[in-house]
Amino acid sequence: MHYNLRKTVATVGLFLVFSFVLVLVAPAVKVETEPNTLVVPDDYATIQHAINSATPRDTVFVRKGIYNESLVISNKSIQLVGEDMNSTIVVGNGNTALVIQHDNVNVTGFTFKRPSTMRWHRGIHLLEVKNCNVYGNMITSTYYGIWCYNSMFNNVYENIVTGNMAGIILEISHNNTVTRNYVIGNDGQGIGTIGADNNTITENYVASNGWVGICLDGGSPNCNNLISANVVTQNTAVGISITSDGSAFNRIIGNNVTANGDLIAYNPSGTGILLNIHDNLVMDNYIIGNQAGIQLEYAYNNTVYRNLIANNTYGGIRDRFLSASQNIIYENNFINNTANFSQNVGVNVWDVNSKGNYWNNYNGTDSNNDGIGDTAHIIAENNTDYYPLMEPVQIPALEIPDTIPEFPLWLVLPLFFVVSLTVFVAKTKICHPI
Ligand SMILES: [Ca+2]
Question: For residue 23, with 0-12 CB atoms within 10 Å meaning exposed, 13-18 middle and 19 or more buried, which class applies?
Fold first, then answer.
């Protein structure tokens, strides 16, 4: 009897305790609320305060103004939206204007700048994140404009990145897209990758950068990247460069690569496309009016197929160190280059399946009218096109959008000239320190 009573009391007690625990736990079950919009400076005096107060999926909306803050988004997925790109300005007062350290963050509508006193400063730093979107911003006067580090599946698009030391850098970052950005007048490289694979760099306007337009280098291998449908023009040394050891299986397709390399003072590196590696594909590009069209340096097993290579002043293809070999170069149009091919002792292949290249200086005949010249075209020692084409190859038209919708050319062109002047002044200062 006593035993049963005790058992009953124990059971009832347990039930009460359990119920109590349930009541305690119930309020902790999260109810998904509608996302809110936090307005700066109406609701919060600083952007960082609003970020700190936001809950996931909220929008922090920032009105026009100049904000001297360095921002960190570290623990939640939010939208950070500026009222107007040109007049919602964040002047970062730390090393970085904005650090994103959480997945699924979107940032748009700002100008990010460096304070005049700070040199080693970054605009937007994506640090170990996924699925973030950075679009419709201007980043200017920083050291790295946009720096993705150890980040994947992010989209960087339709930004204006100008007057920085380097424009957009992907470091140990994979599967990102960099699309329709204006990358103009940066001191060093426009877009660069360092140990980065499987990224897509497409439809960008990459002009007048002080060294290389699009640079796959950084001393680490960069593999399986796609560089397509970009306009790459008037970069001081090189338009598109793949140079780091082990960089393979990258595809450079359908780009407009014009007037790269300093066309006034001879630059030994000056070229439209520079390859210093192996097993990459260069296809359907318009490579016109550069110093050299394509420069090969110790490059081997690359395929150069169906490009228009015209009016380049230091060779259509140039083998700078007499070192390129086993590259497969076929069905290209070589037209009016100062030398269609210069300096070679390595053995390269100039025809595939009985089809070579079109050479505007080939003088042979075609007695059977099959479109292939009767005699081989001797290019250089160890380099012969055995099947020179009588007519130019049909190369697909470039599929490059005329303008980025958000930034029509009437807005960008004046900016471009201002930036060119600024870069020139900045360089003058560096060259002649007081
Ligand atoms: Ca023939």
Answer: exposed
DSSP-derived letter for residue 21 is H
Instruction: Tally the C-alpha atoms within 13 A of residue 398's C-alpha that lie toward its C-beta.
Output: 20
Q: What is the whole-number distance in angstroms between the Cα of residue 383 and the centre of ligand 1?
A: 20
Burial group, residue 59, by CB count within 10 angstroms (0-12, 13-18, 19+): middle
Amino acid at 52: N
Residue 414 has pLDDT above 80, yes or no: no
Q: How far is the CA of 387 from the centre of ligand 1 (A)?
A: 8
Residue predicted with more confidence, 423 or 81: 81
Question: How long, in residues, is the chain?
Answer: 434
What Å distances lie between residue 177 and 242, 243, 254, 351, CA to CA?
Answer: 18, 21, 17, 34
Q: Per 3-state DSSP, what percentage of the chain is helix, strand, and coil (rounded to 5)?
A: 15, 35, 50
Neighbours of 87 (CB within 10 A): 14
Q: Could you tell me the distance, in angstroms and rounded to a whole number, from the CA of residue 355 to the centre of ligand 1?
A: 11
- Give me ligand 1 centre to Cα 358, in Å: 13
Sheet holding 122-127, edge to edge: 71-73, 96-100, 122-127, 144-149, 166-171, 191-194, 212-217, 238-242, 271-275, 292-296, 317-319, 341-342
Q: By C-alpha distance, which of 325, 324, 331 is closest to 385?
A: 331
pLDDT band at 419 (very low <50, low <70, confident <90, very high): very low
Q: What is the mean pLDDT of the chain?
A: 86
Phi, psi of 413 (to 5 degrees): -60, -50
Domain ranges of the chain: 221-400
Residue ranges near ligand 1 (ion) with Cβ within 5 Å: 366, 368, 370, 372
Gap between the Cα atoms of 357 and 129, Å rounded: 46
Question: Which of 304, 302, 343 lies closest to 325 in space, CA to CA?
Answer: 302
Cα separation of 22 and 51, whole Å?
Answer: 33
Task: Say how many Å lie between the CA of residue 248 and the centre of ligand 1.
Answer: 36
Question: Which amino acid is located at 280 in the chain?
Answer: N
CA 43 – ligand 1 centroid, Å: 78
Query: How much distance in Å is there from the Cα of 371 to the middle of ligand 1?
Result: 6
Query: What does the alpha-carbon distance between residue 188 and residue 383 come to, in Å, rounded to a whole number?
Result: 35
Distance between CA 309 and CA 74 in Å, rounded? 48
How far is ligand 1, taken at its centre, from the CA of residue 363, in Å? 13
